[in-house]
Write a structure and sequence with these properties.
By secondary structure, this protein is mainly α. Strands 2-3-8-5-6 form a 5-stranded antiparallel beta sheet, with helices on one face. The radius of gyration is 42 Å and the shape is globular.
């Protein structure tokens, strides 16, 4: 009448009848489980008005506790079993689900029988009992996480007011949003991968809901099956791409899985029955991807339980077998496979998965198929009375165990479920399969993949089988694993020991054997089991397994270390307390091996094995998760985890080897916080702690370590792991950590995701909560996670954080920290480039932030502040001693001079700013008027650095330094720089000097009417920079324009608009189209010149000038650049046009819209400018810009530009004049300007302009835009067809450029349609049939055939060598066409 199902076990239909209305099931408690299901068998109904109440009893001495009920209206129910829910009725309960913190498997008696009772009672009575159970609830906790009643401390369980709770929710939401910065722009959200996945999932779900039903609908069209294959292939790829979006967040699919998967399963049945291999392959791909994304265990819930599918699937696999070698080759997408099956590997995977699911069917398999012949079974060595379907399943699964793809795992799982079926166990199939599996390891020629498959099978079997079923094989399996992986060497063991998969499953098998023995040796009454247990003890199985697992912790394969650490954690939990303590101490002792001790007692882990430390740390974490270490060992465990949390090593290539160790340490601290009570942790005494942590509890010390890790660790997963562990620690142990709630809200999962924000912002906010937090963060910043970090960005973040944290101290503390950094700088070798870089940056950050605090304070300075500022202003002495840079260092890549220069510039700026600040505050007598020879020498050396990016850090430092000097000192220093520049000449080493001269231009005195010598200095700078802007080297020109841009803020408005030399230099750079092997390097110069123009207009403004000013670089040049093909230049030119004209030209929109807007703007300017000459300039700039984008470049720009050109030319026609919103020139005028540009370009040939111009003319002729303009040649002579023909002939005269020749031939195609010049065009084309280039001859022949239709042109091989026949044919054609 009833049946019971436990996950991974066969269905139980046998129950004891206690009375007509009471029944009971006996369920073994091991292997452990957490869910069970009760359901009515098909065809069974309860008496009307009754329900079946479900009870459970864990031990013989406990009472039955109510779980829930089933009824005719609800014929099945799933219950989550928690032991604390059965012992205490005052817990939160639901009708079918009891959710309590402690899991049943951790506390129930091992080996005991659990009794599940069913009582048929009146429905009203059962309903009343369920209502009473649901009403018994504990008051909800306001802690961050659930805290058990026995773990609550006094005062920790008070009810939080609603207002305060709402404030906390709002604070958390604000912290989440503020993790993206001061504002929350859309781009900030897009930079977070989690949010991107969440946002994409909404769109992907909608697309799946639409695409998947449409795709499955094609399977209903049986008549057009063959024609749908190609359509299905493209649609399938789109659906699979949508599913793969959810690989990182598969849980988002859960609410929709039934809607998505069930229709696929429905379609699978007919395709299976018809053996439609195409449909099966497509549907199997869908199911496989669902399994890959969401997991096979979840997807199997939707598979149908129809037993008729079993025979069909087995027969299909059997009739389409393939050998293991070919299957592996196909799985690896190897083409040279002799025989390919009709079933691909994904289809076999799904079929085997489904077969394994059908093995849970509750009825005997003998009812599905006939019993095999006894003689056959005896000959094959199979157990008697086996059904035929079982033989086929064994054969199919054994075959797929040899395949090195996903079918291997599903085949092993199906074999396990088959062996553990009650009907198969009675027939002896379990014993047969184990013996058969063990035999495969004896043959020396057995393949590695088959051995791995057999290990998978044994692992699954021991995990799922009861002790009474598997005990007789434990010794044999143990001996197999011991001999293969631990004791002896053989060909089989050699290949297995080299396989990470094999070692992982060997560890699983061995540790499960030990767990079986430890759990059942005292409880089992079976004499055979006692014999097996005794034999294993005599063989020292436990010692061997633990030794093997400890060795495996140092395995090079991560999956082996994971398996070994988990196995040790589980075994330690099952051991007696004394033995468990020894195992924990062995792990702790291993972590002390190869650890060096410094003079101050600090541990140095540079000599340890990083891989082994990862395994040991992960083992400790698993032990803590299962509460194996006793409280007395927690002090040593915590010390080990603290060391692991700061562990770091680097490989020879510079990659980090410690992130895994630190991540495992986070897991360990999280487990410790979760599994141990506050009382136990508070009893732990930590010794040898630094002064700022002395006297603190273990909880507080752990919190400090997690804070530094969450804020400063370079690995994002480690920071987030520390944040999670800190939240667990504070939530589980309330009021034990200073400002715990505030810390959790600050060091949030999202807040620490970005390293820059974690190191700078989160660390600062955390440091404000307590002095100990600030001290530990500052101390850690001096280490490898801060100023000693290997990458420059990390050191920059650390320096910024150091500046903020140090400035939280009193002024005396700030000065003390500054002295410490200066002392470290002076003791640091010049070879320690990274540390010097970090120290200099941190010193500059401290000075900079301190000055900002003073400037923000409106009140007068305190004496301590004045003293500190005065000490900062005298830090010039650090240059030449701690901060040095020699000329030879600039040429050594190992010295990383670019980093040192950037840091030195920051420090020079900060020290100079301290002097300036003192002077502004009226304490100039305290400023550092010491000899600046050392700093000027260091800075001058910096100016000699090579590279354009390095010198960008110099302007501010040079300007600040000269601001602290006397007038004569300024002139002397500038004179030295100018003399150095003359000595070096124009070279990459001069770039820094150019930038420095431009930067200090503002600092030098202006013209006072008498100081001619000072003026000459400014003029010399300007003259030098303008001369450099005309240098032949492109890098020099770019740097010179940058330097000139630095001088612009100091130039008076009228001078900026009228200085001819400056503006001529900018104009020259705007027309720089230098091309070398790197490509269009002139674009660098054009871009920099546009930046200079932008700066001029920002300073001067159109209100101070008339538009367009005569001295301003030509506006038409900027208009031309706004339409050129390079995106970067085009964007900056559009920005300049907006500043000059006020017309918004958004270059970020699509290319078609942008080109249309710019073209309309230029044409409108041509009409409104007034003068005819200026109009022509605008029209020519229009065509120069359009042709550069429409005639050359990438297709993504050519196509939209041509489309925009076509629409614009059509809009210029007379018929469209009434529809225009703005004034535009006539179409004839614009066309004439194009041909005039054509003529001008031919007069001064420039292929950069001519080739795209010819392509543009071809396009306009193809679009029939130019042809109607030939009728307007009276008003516009340039539009005469004869002139166009003449220009075309001149364009390719004596040219060897194939693109130019082909373009001209294309133009001749359209000119031949003009009657007045047709004969001239044909004459020219016929003469070109004798051109030496075969491609030209072929193109001309095609044009002539289109124009004249002469069939003889098709009979000649124009791509062949020139022959007399071709010449004679051309002469005949000439007489025929031109007669």
């Amino acid at each position: 009448m009833f049946a019971l199902v436990i996950s991974s076990r066969p269905v139980i239909t046998e129950f004891a009848t206690l009375s007509p209305t009471q029944f009971s099931f006996s369920v073994p408690s091991v292997p452990s489980f957490s869910h069970l299901a009760i359901f009515l068998l098909p065809g069974q109904v309860l008496p009307e008005g009754t329900a079946a109440a479900v009870y459970i009893r864990l031990t013989p001495h406990s009472d039955f506790k109510l779980l829930g009920a089933v009824a005719n209206e609800k014929q099945s129910a799933i219950f989550k079993i928690k032991e604390s829910a059965l012992n205490a009725a005052n817990t939160a309960a639901a009708t079918d689900d009891l959710m309590i913190d402690d899991d049943l498997s951790a506390t129930q008696p091992t080996g005991a029988e659990i009794i599940v009772g069913i009582s048929i009672e009146l429905a009203a009575t059962v309903q009343a009992q369920l209502a009473a159970l649901k009403a018994q609830k504990v008051p909800q906790s306001n802690a961050l996480v659930l805290v058990k009643p026995q773990e609550r401390q006094n005062g920790g369980s008070g009810t939080i007011p609603t207002k305060l709770l709402a404030q906390r929710i709002i604070s958390n939401a604000f912290n989440f949003l503020s993790s993206y910065g001061d504002t929350v722009p859309l781009k900030s959200f897009e930079s977070d991968d989690d949010l991107k996945s969440l946002r994409a999932s909404s769109w992907a779900l909608k697309e799946l809901q639409s695409r998947l039903p449409q795709f499955l609908g094609t399977f209903d069209n049986q008549k057009a099956e063959a024609g749908l294959d190609e359509l299905r292939g493209s649609d399938l790829a789109e659906v699979l791409d949508l599913l793969n979006i959810f690989q990182e967040d598969p849980q988002l699919l859960d609410p929709h899985l039934k809607r998505f998967v069930s229709p696929i399963i429905v379609k699978y049945g007919p395709a299976l029955a018809e053996e439609n291999f195409v449909s099966l392959g497509i549907l199997s791909q869908l199911i496989y991807v669902f399994c890959k994304v969401r997991g096979a265990k979840i997807i199997t819930r939707f598979l149908e339980n129809e037993p008729t599918y079993l025979l069909t699937m087995v027969n299909l696999l059997k009739t389409n077998e393939i050998d293991a070698e070919s299957a592996t080759a196909i799985a690896n997408e190897v083409d040279h496979v002799l025989t390919k099956p009709k079933l691909d590997w994904k289809t076999r995977y799904v079929l085997l998965l489904w077969i394994g699911h059908l093995m849970l069917t509750p009825f005997d398999l003998s009812t599905v198929s006939n019993i095999a012949n006894d003689r056959y079974l005896e000959r094959e060595g199979l157990p008697s009375k086996l059904p035929l379907v079982v033989i086929d399943i064994l054969h199919v699964c054994r075959t797929n165990l040899e395949v090195a793809s996903n079918e291997q795992s599903t085949a092993a799982a199906a074999l396990v479920r088959l062996a553990l079926r009650p009907d198969m166990k009675k027939l002896g199939l379990l014993d047969f399969q184990v013996r058969q599996t063990l035999e495969t390891f004896k043959a020396s020629d057995t393949g590695l993949h088959l051995l791995n498959g057999n290990l998978m099978f044994l692992s699954g079997l021991i995990s799922s089988a009861n002790a009474n079923d598997i005990h007789q094989h434990l010794v044999d399996i143990h001996m197999l694993i011991s001999r293969t992986f631990y004791q002896y060497h053989s060909p089989v063991s050699a290949q297995l020991r080299s396989s990470a998969v094999a070692k992982k499953f060997a560890i699983k098998i061995w540790h499960k054997i030990i767990v079986h023995i430890l759990q059942h040796e005292k409880l089992s009454t079976s004499s055979a089991y006692q014999v097996s247990s005794r034999l294993l003890h005599e063989m020292n199985a436990l010692e061997d397994v633990i030794d093997f697992l400890l060795r495996s912790l140092a395995d090079r394969d991560t999956q082996v270390r994971y398996a070994a650490s988990k196995a040790l954690g589980i075994i330690t939990t099952k051991l007696e307390p004394g033995l468990a303590e020894e195992v924990v101490m062995a792990v702790l002792g291993s972590m002390q091996e190869d650890v060096l001790r410094g003079h101050n007692g600090e541990q140095n882990t540079s000599a340890v094995n990083a891989v082994r430390w990862h395994g040991l740390t992960l083992t400790l974490a698993h032990m803590l998760f299962r509460r194996s270490p006793v409280p007395e060992q927690l002090a040593d465990v915590l010390s080990a985890l603290y060391n692991a949390l700061t562990f770091e090593q680097r490989s020879a290539s510079g990659n980090s080897l410690g992130a895994n160790v630190r991540d495992a340490a986070n897991f360990g601290l999280w487990s410790l916080a979760r599994r141990y009570s506050t009382k136990e942790l508070m009893a732990v005494v930590m010794i040898d702690q630094p002064p700022h942590l002395s006297g603190s509890s273990a909880v507080q010390i752990t919190a400090c370590h997690l804070i530094s890790s969450a804020c400063l660790d370079p690995a994002g997963n480690v920071r987030r792991g520390s944040s999670a562990a800190l939240q667990e620690l504070i939530g589980r142990h309330p009021d034990m950590v200073v400002e715990g709630i505030s810390l959790v809200q600050t060091i949030d999962y999202h807040a620490v995701g970005l390293r820059g924000r974690a190191v700078v912002d989160v660390a600062l906010e955390a440091a404000t909560f307590s002095e100990m937090y600030r001290i530990i963060l500052v101390n850690e910043l001096f280490g490898w996670r801060g100023l000693r970090a290997p990458d420059s960005s990390s050191r920059e973040f650390a320096a910024a954080s150091m500046g903020q944290l140090v400035n939280l101290e009193l002024t005396g503390g700030i000065q003390s920290r500054t002295d410490t950094i200066v002392r470290l700088l002076r003791n640091t070798s010049t070879r320690e480039v990274e540390l010097r870089h970090g120290l200099i940056l941190s010193l500059a950050a401290i000075l900079d932030i301190f000055q900002k605090r003073i400037q923000a304070d409106d009140e007068s300075l305190h004496s301590s502040q004045v003293s500190t500022l005065a000490s900062f202003s005298k830090l010039w002495t650090v240059f030449g001693t701690g901060v040095t840079l020699e000329a030879k260092d600039l040429s050594l890549p190992s010295m990383k001079s670019d980093l040192t220069i950037a840091a030195i510039c920051s420090l020079v700026t900060a020290v100079a700013a301290s002097n300036i600040c003192l002077q502004k505050c009226g304490y100039s007598q305290l400023s550092g008027h010491t000899d600046k020879a050392a700093v000027t020498q260091v800075l001058t050396t910096c100016l000699s650095a090579r590279g354009t990016e390095t010198v960008l850090n110099l302007p501010k430092a040079c300007r600040k330094l000269l601001s602290t000097m006397q007038e004569d000192e300024k002139n002397d220093l500038v004179g030295i720089w100018l003399e150095t520049l003359l000595r070096l000449g124009i070279s990459p080493r001069s770039f820094g000097l150019f930038i420095a001269l431009g930067a200090v231009y503002d600092v030098l005195p202006r013209d006072s009417g008498s100081a001619d010598t000072v003026l000459s200095g400014r003029k010399r700078i300007m003259k030098t920079l303008i001369l450099a802007s005309k240098a032949p080297d492109i890098e020099t020109r770019v740097v010179a324009i940058r330097a000139l841009t630095l001088t612009l803020p100091t130039v008076p408005e009228k001078v900026a608009a009228t200085d001819p030399e400056l503006l001529v230099a900018i104009e020259d750079c705007l027309n720089d189209y230098t091309i070398n092997e790197r490509g269009d390097v002139g674009s660098l110069s054009r871009f920099q010149a546009l930046l200079a123009i932008e700066q001029i207009w920002i300073l001067s403004g159109p209100s101070n000038m008339e538009l367009p000013p005569a001295s301003l670089p030509s506006l038409v040049t900027i208009q031309r650049l706004a339409m050129e093909r390079l995106d970067k230049v085009r964007l900056q030119a559009a920005k300049c046009l907006y500043i000059i004209t006020g017309v918004q030209l958004d270059a970020s929109i699509d290319a078609f819209s942008y080109m249309t807007n710019v073209a309309m703007h230029i044409l409108h300017m041509a009409v409104t400018v007034g003068e005819a000459g200026e109009c022509q300039k605008h029209l020519q700039s229009f065509w120069l810009g359009v042709t550069s984008s429409a005639g050359a470049g990438a297709d993504s720009l050519i196509e939209p530009t041509r489309q925009a050109l076509h629409d614009i030319m059509c809009s210029l026609s007379a018929t469209s004049e009434s529809k225009r919103d703005i004034a535009l020139p006539a179409m004839e005028e614009v066309g004439a300007a194009l041909l005039e540009l054509f003529s001008t370009t031919i007069a001064a040939p420039d292929d950069r302009i001519l080739l795209p111009l010819l392509e543009t003319v071809c396009f306009l002729l193809d679009s029939n835009i130019l042809q109607p303009l030939f009728a307007s040649s009276t008003s516009f002579p340039a539009l005469k067809p004869v002139i166009v023909l003449s220009l075309t002939q001149r364009a390719h005269f004596k040219s060897t450029s194939l693109p130019k020749l082909l373009s001209c031939v294309h133009i001749y195609l359209h000119l031949a349609g003009v009657d007045e010049i047709r004969n001239e065009v044909l004459k020219k084309l016929v003469s070109m049939l004798l051109h030496p280039f075969p491609r030209v001859r072929k193109a001309v022949a095609e044009v002539l055939w289109v124009v004249t239709g002469v069939e003889g042109l098709k009979d000649v091989n124009w791509m062949g060598n020139m022959s007399k026949d071709i010449k004679a044919g051309v002469e005949g054609l000439k007489r025929r066409l031109l007669s």
